[in-house]
Each structure stands twice: as C-alpha cells, then as structure tokens.
Amino acid sequence: MKSINISIRKIIIFCVFLILLIGIYMICGKLTSPYGVQKVSFTPSKSETFTKGNLSFTIYRASTGVNQDIIYHFHGRNLDNTIWNDDTYFTSLIQSYWQKTNKKPPTVVLISYGPEWLITPKNSLIESGLMDDFISNLQLIESKIAKPKNRILLGESMGGLNVLILGLNHPELFSRVASLCPGVYLDSPFSDFNEIKAAMKRTGADPKIALGIYLMAKKYVSNEEEWKKISPIDLIKKANMHYPELYLSCGLYDKYGNYEGTEALVNIASSKGVKTHWHPLYGGHCAIDISSLADFLIIN
Q: Hey, which end of the chain has fewer CB within 10 Å, N or C?
C-alpha cells in the first residue's frame, strides 16, 4: 500500500488559505448586514405590570388620556407583555397613528401566560384551562382600571388564534375582535398525514413551522372533539349577527399557511351575519394595515 505524504509547507499554505477565506466571509457578512433598525417615533404609554399565578398582564395608558374601552391584547409566539411599547413593533405604529390623528385610545391590557400558549377551556390535558383562568381573572384586571364600556380583543399570529378562540367562545363579553395573521386552518392536528401534507402544498406553509404548530396544538388538545371547541372554523359556524364585530387580516404568502383558513373564516362569518372587515394583504406573515386596524380599535 502506498503511503500518502503531505509536506508541512502544503499544510501551512492550506491553513493560511482557509483562514483568509473564513476572514473574507466574516468581513463580507459584517459589511452586508444591516447597521441598524428602523424605529417608530411616538410617545410610549405609561405602564404597570401585575401577576397572578401563571398570568402576567401589563396595563398601558396613553399619556394623552384614554377613553372608556379596554383592548385586551394577546401577543404572538415568543413575545411577552412588554411588547406594546416596543418602538420596532407594529404596536408602536398604532400608537403613533393615534397620536398623529389626536384620537383618544382605549386602555390596553397586554395578557401573557408565557412565550407560547393556547387559551383553551379545561379538557383532559394538564396544560389546558387558560380560558377559564383568564375569565376568572377579568374582575381582578378591571378592578385596577374600571369596568369598560366596550371590551376589544387584539392578537397577532398565536395571539390572533387566541383572541378568536376566546371571542367566539364568549361572544357576550366582547364588542370587537381584531385577529391578525391568525393560525386558522381547514384541517385539524388530527387529520390524516396526507391531508396535512396536501394542505402545506396548497398554502405554501413552511414544513418546519407546520410541525411546530402541530406539536403546540397537541399540548393543549388531545382529540378531534377537544379541537373543535377551539377551532375558529367550527366555532364561527355557530355565530349570528349578535357576535362581536370582526377584523381579520393575513398576508397572501404567509409562511404559516394561514391565508386559506382565514379567508374561509371570513366567508363563513359574513354568511352568518357577523359584521366582518377583511384585509387580505400582499405580503408575508403578519403584514398589517396600520390605519384601518387603528381605526377599528377605537369605537366611536
């Protein structure tokens, strides 16, 4: 067998070349990365934070004063109850819009049960029951503000699904529901794999994201019957003209595959007599039309 001899000089040259290549790659990456981030110019709201058990909520009041309504804002995945005043997030654009138009907004209560959660009624799983917990804490939350004239729900992504689940299960408690890029699907986590695969192809959903949503849903519901109690598509079929007014938006190229289900929800809601505002957008996940949303959140 022949032995392979590589000179030390060649090894040194190769290592120097490799180091130079890595250095050039890192320098190019640094030079072509964004140097900063566009921030929104606005006056942040005053805030107070409270906790009770797993519930954490922050009350935000505009510095120019508030009206008699309350917005309950349910945040998206991996966010928290401090997001309302983030000057790089859509919530700061809403505040900026209100300030420029001299509109007195509602008090905002940002609700959180952690970075990832579904507000389900109590069922067979330990993680379920957050809906019952929230409803039982409404009196506590509003004792720190005042009983509102109107309760409004607002949520994006995971939060958009959560406000639909809550608003459609308890329509008597809320006047309006604004659901942005919500996780609404025609199929359930208990559908046949081929059906789920076909849905991903149809909607353009990212398979890794679809798997994450599938696993999250299985934490809170264990069978089809439990799923139907939180599926907006099933819940909206029971609706009538006395249900909360709905605002729904979704990007056509939502990588979560949310467009198809959200559009279907809009069509069913309209057929049931629910006053519905539909804002399909040419964009990705959580593309938002700020002016129409900000107007919807203030009831004249």
A: N
